[in-house]
């Protein structure tokens, strides 16, 4: 009897244990090593991607005079076809975006709340709202500013700086003044910061642009677009009216802001030792920047330029080659970039020796015109190489939309007017987002949890 009881007890206990183990393994998140094993076991063995070279440091970077190199190390051991990797990275993104958030938690936000009135804000940051815009875009920019004032600036009163390659009309200026109580300054860009440099070979440029146009590259033939990209890549921070400022928040026509921002974003970045804030990051059209990366690597391997590379740069994000490997084949790197139509940044970084010398070199290649280098990839390459990645901040809490991409968080205080956790308004565009890669390789910690 006693033996039967003992056997029943043993059976009972082991049963409970088995149920417990099964339950825990179903409900608890996989450990990192389990995840890696699962990924390694993925059946698409014909897409093995790069295997880490054990002779390289974990960040894949060699930063030595005349020998600067960056290699994708696939630090999480991801394997699979590009479609599989895109699905995996989108899942990573959606999981994080679906978490309910409010504001950053790595700073005492109560110290940077809106002042009682925007007119009485003595310790406002040294910042401006920067808008490059044409007179003809009055309606589009009106829409943006209405929303922007409503969500942020009517509480803080940061001054606007409107810049344009042509003088602003009185009609445009009057309209802008009607939209805000904040000071507005209207600057005409000096031609040397905007116009195509005279040494550009027009025949070579025309042939190159016809080729890009025939590959359906948008805006290839548009002269002003090339000027705009060159200007926003490097020259904007030299506009005389911007000299007095350190910080800017760039906005543009026809964008949406979906969330209230109840803290001073400039002071937040400054207080947390950051220099750049973004909301979206994307892959680029590889044909537009074929020589940006190789030219940059050559430059880093010239004289002492290697010393500008920050040892904790976002190298794995820049070199990732699994989600859209054709980008790396054509452009030599991932093409991932911060989408610069939204940016909050410290101009002192761009005015500093590394970025400025590098931009002068880029400009000397003429490739803003012989190719169609965008300001977003240029800016992002500079930040990924010369800044510490801890200085780059994803404003995950700021709901933002520029057609067709968005940052749509699950915000505690908002009834979101966008589809939460979707990187774009069309499903098929999810693979154009680099955010999963940023989460895995760029973000060292989550400031929102
Ligand atoms: N003054 C002026 N502003 C320009 C010119 N070209 C572009 N911009 C501004 O530069 C910013 C970026 O230009 P967009 O045409 O929006 O470029 P994009 O965002 O790459 O393209 P979209 O996807 O069409 O919005 C916007 O704020 C424009 O208003 C120009 O020739 N003159
Ligand atoms: Mg735009």
UniProtKB/TrEMBL annotation:
SUPFAM superfamilies: Nucleotide-diphospho-sugar transferases. GO terms for cellular component: Golgi apparatus; membrane. One of its GO terms (biological process) is protein N-linked glycosylation. Keywords: Glycosyltransferase, Signal-anchor, Transferase, Transmembrane. InterPro entries: Glyco_trans_15, Nucleotide-diphossugar_trans. It is a single-pass type II membrane protein. The keyword Glycosyltransferase applies. It is found in: Membrane. GO terms for molecular function: alpha-1,2-mannosyltransferase activity. The keyword Nucleotidyltransferase does not apply. It comes from the Eukaryota. Belongs to the glycosyltransferase 15 family. This is Mannosyltransferase. It comes from Diutina rugosa (Yeast).
